[in-house]
Structures are given as structure tokens and as C-alpha cells.
Amino acid sequence: MPAARSSRPAVARAAPSCPRKVLPARSRMTAAADFSAVLRRGTRSGRATVVVYVKQTGDADSMAGFAVSKAVGGAVIRNRVKRRLRAIMASALPELPTGTAVVIRALPRSADVDFEHLRSDVMDALSTALRKAALA
Questions:
Q1: How far is CA 121 from the centre of its chain?
Q2: What residues does 43 pair with on adjacent strands?
């Protein structure tokens, strides 16, 4: 008797569009109140692909949250943008001062750029927002 066949054909997976870095669970912003506080009272800096909001919370851990609306694209595109942003922030969060809360709002153009361009925009906007927050 032949082995049962799968109903789905084997598909070769392409290389990931961004490096695999994991943002730890304690560093993920999930509460709506945390998002609101950072968006309303945080310092803002924008680029062509993202707007970065930064607020010093005084907590022990730094946290990052992401806002990717339907204007960016369909579910697949939005999830790819979120994966890229999480990878960028996984490497950037340890370098930030403790107690920093960051929210990154993706703009529609973020779906059209490659990982390095997105990383460059995020890091530039993040450093500008941190500099503004230090002056405030």
C-alpha cells in the first residue's frame, strides 16, 4: 500500500526578508493604555516610512509597540512589516536607556522598501526622538 499523500504540494520557502531576532515578551507593549500614553505624551520623530514615539516611563524594562494600519496593505504585508520592525527593535532595545517606551507607527511606504532602508529610517527617527526627549 503506498504512503498517503499530503493534500498540499511541497513549497520551497524563500529566505526570510529580515534577520530572525526575537523581541522578548517582557519587552512587548500590549496594553492599550501604554500605547495611548506613549502616543499622547511621548516625543515624536518621523521619516518617510515610519513615525517613532518615545517616552521615558521609569520602569525597569524598555518596551516597544507597533501600529501597522490597513493603509499599509493586506494582512500578509502588514505582518511582514511588523516582523521587520520587531527584528529592528530586538537589536535596538538593549541599547536604549532603561525605562524607555517606544511605539513605531508604520506608514504606507514601509511596505515598499527593503529591510535595510526600513532599519535606517527607524534608527534615524529613534535617535532623533531620543534626543528631543532628552531636551524636553
A1: 12
A2: 54
